[in-house]
Amino acid sequence: MVDEIRSRMIELLPRLRRFAFALTGDKDKADDLVQDTCERALAHLDQWKPGTSLDSWMYRIAQNIWVDHHRSRKSHGGENTLDEVENLMGQDGRNVTESRLTLAAVTEGIARLPAEQKVLVAMVCVEGISYKEAAGILGIPIGTVMSRLSRARQTLYASLIEAPQQAAEPVAARAASRER
Predict the structure, then answer these.
(1) What is the pLDDT of residues 113-157, one digit of tens each?
(2) Which of 48, 90, 128, 157 has the greatest number of beta carbons closer than 10 A?
(3) CA distance 51 to 103
(4) Are 39 and 114 in contact (CB under 8 A)?
(5) How far is 16 from 49, CA to CA, in rounded Å?
(6) Are the C-beta atoms of residues 163 and 82 closer than 8 Å to each other?
(7) Is the pTM of this model over 0.85?
């Protein structure tokens, strides 16, 4: 039984890693979150109820670890923002550059979302989990899932609309407007 569960956990790793990356926005932090999730799940296998979704249980563990870490950073004043964007000069081509800028804007927009919205974006938009399953994993009504996801999408859309305007605005003009 334990070997079967471990095998299923291994199959889940790629999806769990994508989920963790969507939450953290960083490959190394995502790997750490996945490792912590697996360690906690293996240490508490007795708490998983056979017949229930192992995927949902693992996502819930990952989300709880991430939320706990997120709260801890905020309470200790260690909230980090996106400090650097990957070097955009590595490849030629306007499409590559625009795609990377868009990805950076989306990543930054997701990072700014409240934790409860970020979790839903990761579950539904990145992992493709249904609204119903996300509601079950999080223990909230499906209407709450829908409204939080709607607000998250509206916020992301607004940040993407503003990002090109801010990028096109001359740096001197931005600096002058901050000094006022």
Answers:
(1) 998 999 999 899 888 899 999 999 899 999 999 999 999 999 988
(2) 48
(3) 38
(4) no
(5) 19
(6) no
(7) no
